[in-house]
From TrEMBL:
InterPro entries: Cys_knot_C, EGF, Laminin_G, NOTCH_homolog
Keyword Glycoprotein: no
Disulfide bond positions: C19-C46, C87-C97, C108-C117, C126-C136, C148-C157
Keyword Ribonucleoprotein tagged: no
Source superkingdom: Eukaryota
Domain Laminin G, residue spans: 1-46
Annotated ranges, domain EGF-like: 83-118, 122-158
A Pfam family of this chain: EGF
Keywords linked to the UniProt accession: Disulfide bond, EGF-like domain
GO terms of biological process kind: nervous system development
Record protein name field: Uncharacterized protein
Phylogenetic classification of the source organism: Eukaryota, Metazoa, Chordata, Craniata, Vertebrata
Matches recorded under SUPFAM superfamilies: EGF/Laminin
All copies of domain CTCK, residue ranges: 163-238
């Protein structure tokens, strides 16, 4: 009988796992409580792992069993559902989510404001200091200064740089004897059409090499390494 109640990987598929009482063999009532101490698989009283609604069941010796619940359940038997926290879908950017019943609020970090803490709080020194295309920041000396967005410059971020590249995406063509070859995709590049002050020229200041595949009108194709401009800058004009 004891081997039939033993738990573990060697347990027979026909083994019993649960609570039994009034066990009789040949009409004689068996006292299972008198089983030797430490006999694996037999515990006094009724301590069945089937009581846990969800989660993992753990045997605790003579004290019975305990249920280890998953995150969505609670209670001694893991039979109570826990409502999901509203902070799981929080939109707080620079702050902490504070749950409030079925909703939440954002407790902003220093320097940020707004419902979702997504706006930088204007420092006191920046009050009335206008930055057209940028934001005001306080320098180490405590003075307000404009930090400009890309593509703008000047003390109040309202001037575009003299030499600013323009992105162009075109199919490239190569005319060869008896055929014309065209790139298989549009190639992005930066053109530098503007002028600079002080007699300088607006010219490519940063570039990279890339492989371009061409397909020709006679059905052939080939690849070519070419230099493409990434940024423009003011430089001495070529002679």
């Amino acid at each position: 009988m004891a081997s039939g109640l033993r738990s573990g990987p060697d347990r027979s598929p026909q083994a019993f796992n649960g609570c039994i009482h009034n066990v009789r063999i040949n009409g004689e009532l068996q006292d299972l409580g008198a089983a030797p101490r430490g006999l694996e698989g037999i515990l006094p009283g009724c301590h069945s792992c089937s009581v846990c609604a969800q989660g993992a069941c753990r045997q605790r010796g003579e004290t019975g069993v305990s249920c280890e619940c998953p995150p969505s359940r609670s209670g001694p038997l893991c039979d109570q559902r826990i409502a999901p926290s509203p902070c799981q879908s929080s939109r707080c950017v620079h702050g902490l989510c504070v749950p409030k019943a079925s909703s939440y609020s954002c407790h902003c970090a220093d320097g940020y404001t707004g419902q979702y803490c997504d706006r930088r709080e204007e420092p006191q020194a920046c009050k009335g200091h206008q930055c057209g295309h940028g934001e005001c920041r306080v320098t180490e000396s405590g003075e307000p200064s404009c930090h400009c967005q890309p593509g703008y410059t000047g003390p109040t971020c309202d001037a575009e740089p003299a030499c600013q590249g323009e992105v162009v995406r075109d199919l490239l063509k190569r005319h060869q004897p008896m055929k014309t070859c065209t790139s298989t995709s549009k190639i992005p590049r930066v053109e530098c059409p503007r002028a600079c002050d002080g007699g300088f020229c607006c010219a490519p200041s940063k570039s990279r090499r890339r492989k371009v595949v061409f397909k020709c009108t006679d059905g052939s194709s080939y690849s070519e390494e070419m230099e493409t401009t990434l940024e423009c800058g003011c430089a001495k004009c070529p002679l």
